[in-house]
Amino acid sequence: MRRIGFDACLTQMYFIHILSFIESSVLLAMAIDRFIAISHPLRHSSILTKTTVIKIGLAIIVRGMVSLLPIPFLLKRLTYCRKTELSHSFCFHPDIMNLACADIKVNVFYGMIILLSTVGMDFIFIVLSYILIIKTVISLATKEECLKALNTCVSHICAVLVFFIPMIGLSMIHRFGKNLPPLVNTLVAYTYLIIPPALNPVIYSIKSSHIREALLRALWRKRESNW
């Protein structure tokens, strides 16, 4: 069994959650970018200037860091039982919290508020952005223009689904899946941690004809060498 110090575990947890929050915010920023590109294509560069993009990036990082800063201190104040075995191979806030022998109502409440006010709000605004995008696309003159506009959003929609589905699944398991087999917890946790960053490059590169052709050539050469 591998061990990790408590302070190191809190640090790992803090950065894992920060990266998740940042990814959620980036997906929202990309959804707004798609909406502006489709609704106001001629004004896109004047609305999203370099200065505006830098400010958005800094706001995303600061929001993630500040909103999660109390979490390690809230966990550190708790008293823990003798059994300190985590359900996953990485440190996750609900997992650490459930090891405590003390009252964790404050931790549960704060964690829920932060999750809903950051990732939850991001998801709602992403959905609203796509509702506005669909409304704009429907008003376009021809079917070809509609399909062309929607085609620019396919990669982003896939990235949103790949990110939010495992996150929601892991949160639901920690809230309501106490009696599930440990294997289910492990699979969902690894899906949440590994699948989104592994698939994102594939999702965004597969739309590029040059990258797609290079991948096909590489696969074809590998197939020929196996023969």
From TrEMBL:
Pfam families the record matches: 7tm_4 (PF13853)
Residue span(s) of domain G-protein coupled receptors family 1 profile: 1-204
Primary location class: membrane
MF (Gene Ontology): G protein-coupled receptor activity; olfactory receptor activity
Compartments in which it is found: Membrane
Keywords on record: Membrane, Olfaction, Receptor, Sensory transduction, Transducer, Transmembrane, Transmembrane helix
TM segment ranges: 12-32, 52-75, 123-141, 153-175, 187-206
Source domain of life: Eukaryota
Entry GO CC: plasma membrane
Keyword Transmembrane helix: yes
Membrane topology value: Multi-pass membrane protein
The keyword Transmembrane helix belongs to this UniProt entry's keyword annotation: yes
Gene3D superfamilies xref list: Rhodopsin 7-helix transmembrane proteins (1.20.1070.10)
Name of this chain's protein: Olfactory receptor 51G2-like
